[in-house]
TrEMBL record:
NCBIfam families (alphabetical): choice_anch_P
Sequence ranges assigned to domain VWFA in this UniProt record: 68-277
Signal peptide span: 1-21
The keyword Ligase is annotated on this UniProt entry: no
SUPFAM superfamilies reported in the protein's UniProt record: vWA-like
Highest rank taxon of the organism: Bacteria
Protein name, per record: VWFA domain-containing protein
Record keywords: Signal
């Protein structure tokens, strides 16, 4: 079954054969690359959209000579008709187009080249000056050392009814034989060991002899693609001949799924059109987050705009959707085409979003003020220990501890107090601690208080205990602070003044996320 193909349009043929790597090669051998420059792989980033920057290129790296290119020239008598002032008669314009294409073939993706001329019959050209009939040569080979590439000598030696180099061969000029031209092109293509074979088939007319094209097209291998060009006002992509021999359109349709014959009414444009067959192009960039669908990166985020013919390098800067706490994979894909078809490469980086948080061991507000002591905040994160607070009869503590760390998408804040006495001994605590953990899996808050209130042991779990006329004590309290901050207080004491009005607040062992 033939490969899938992106349609031949505007004289560019593209076959969908994807590759996946940050650096690689398109099916025809042209280099293609995409790189995420920022954020770095494994970077920690803030919650919200993340700006992704990088570059993409086609045709700027090391090519792979994976394609064979076969020129097929119509040398029938009618090609002596006028073509265009810029190139001469129709045959001379075909020759000029072939030479322009071979100049493009020097990019390094074409491994070998061959040629066929046809009229009443078709003949494979001898493309090397040495002994024997050689079907293939290098696109830049100059075997006779005369300063002219051998294949270009052969193309230039094509005459009405034949080809002169390096062995003279006559094909007759009274008819146009598509079937034999296909058969001979197939012979040359199958002599090559390259992975892809691209045949460029030019004709100024339509088949009027030689039988049906279905015979040489039967069983043609998937790696041979024949791109046809109807050259001049007397040519027709769709006419199948007087005896239904077959059309140029049918030749391409049989070998290039989705491809079409190109009508070249303006013969002078043929030398400019033909090189696009093996030219490269960077066609699109797209981005994917966390395994979702790739979405296009618009030209507002790309410099210069796409598509661009290769060789080319572009820069991009695009923002992701808002990223929540946790690990996220960001991938950027570059799509391109060359003479072998279409392909793509993808670069992926993983980033980690760590949520903000913090913890403190003690804080007093009201008539007596104690700032959060010590306080550790994420980002950047810290571990702090401080000596006791001694403010009797309000509060006396042991050592004070607070820490916060954010790594791998998990933020952990902890605080503890190594014992405390509050309100002249009404509250006696031997251990106070709290822990807050936030990740993409969710939020966990917990605390522990060991001690007594008016001699009664404190039980586990959240509780609110009143000391009549003195204070209200909140234990293991989970609450929400300003801006939606999630708070866990091990102990929060509200000291009451006259008329039961709160005049002082003391917090021990607190942590928060957000």
């Amino acid at each position: 079954m033939k490969r899938a193909l992106i349609a031949f349009a505007a004289a560019s043929a593209l076959i969908a054969t994807p590759a996946f790597a940050a650096d690689g090669n398109l099916p025809g051998g042209t280099s293609i690359a995409v790189t995420i420059a920022t954020p770095a792989d494994g970077a920690a980033v803030a919650p919200g959209p993340v700006t992704v920057t990088g570059t993409a290129s086609v045709g700027t790296g090391v090519p792979v000579a994976g394609t064979s290119l076969i020129y097929v020239l119509d040398a029938s008598s009618s090609t002596a008709n006028p073509g265009a002032p810029s190139c001469g008669n129709i045959l001379q314009c075909e020759i000029a187009a072939g030479l322009a294409l071979n100049a493009q073939a020097q990019s390094g993706t074409i491994g070998d080249v061959g040629m066929v001329a046809f009229g009443v019959t078709a003949a494979t050209a001898d493309v090397q000056p040495g002994a024997g009939d050689q079907l293939l040569t290098g696109p830049a080979t100059d075997g006779d050392g005369n300063g002219v590439r051998d294949i270009e000598e052969v193309i230039s030696s094509t005459f009405i009814n034949g080809v002169a180099k390096f062995t003279n061969k006559n094909v007759g000029g009274g008819q146009t034989n598509f079937a034999d031209a296909i058969a001979k092109a197939r012979t040359v293509a199958q002599a090559s060991t390259r992975a892809r074979k691209v045949v460029v088939f030019m004709s100024d007319g339509f088949a009027v002899g030689g039988g049906s094209i279905n015979v040489p097209l039967a069983g043609i291998p998937d790696d041979i693609d024949i791109y046809t060009f109807a050259v001049g006002g007397g040519a027709d992509c769709d006419y199948a001949g007087p005896n239904n021999e077959g059309s140029l359109e049918q030749i391409t349709a049989a070998t290039v799924p989705g491809g079409h014959c190109v009508q070249v009414t303006d013969v002078a444009s043929l030398p400019a059109i033909l090189p696009a067959v093996i030219g490269s192009r960077l066609t699109a960039l797209s981005m994917r987050v966390d395994g979702g669908a790739f979405t296009p990166i618009g030209n507002a985020a790309i410099t210069p705009d796409l598509p661009q013919d290769g060789p080319v390098n572009v820069n991009y800067s695009v923002a992701t959707p808002a990223l929540g706490i946790g690990s996220h994979e960001i991938c950027v894909r570059a799509d391109g085409t060359d003479g072998g078809g279409a392909g793509q490469v993808t670069d992926c980086h993983t980033v980690v979003v760590n949520g903000p948080g913090g913890a403190f061991a003690v804080e007093a507000t009201g008539l007596v003020k104690v700032p959060r002591t010590p306080e550790a905040v994420c980002p950047p994160g810290a571990t702090k220990t401080q000596v006791a607070v001694d403010l009797p009869p309000l509060v006396t503590t042991g050592a004070l501890n607070a820490s916060c760390s954010a790594t791998g998408g998990t933020t952990t804040a902890r605080s503890s107090v190594d014992g405390a006495t509050l309100l002249g001994g009404a509250i006696q605590l031997s251990a106070v601690s709290s822990t807050c953990t936030g990740s993409s899996s969710g939020v966990n808050r917990s605390s522990q208080v060991v001690g007594t209130i008016n001699g009664t042991p404190i039980s586990a779990g959240p509780a609110t205990i009143g000391i009549p006329g003195v204070a209200t004590v909140h234990l293991n309290e989970s609450t929400t602070g300003p801006g939606g901050r999630l708070v866990q207080n091990a102990v929060r004491v509200e000291v009451l003044g006259l008329l039961g009005i709160v005049t002082q607040q003391i917090v021990l062992g607190s942590c928060y996320l957000g």
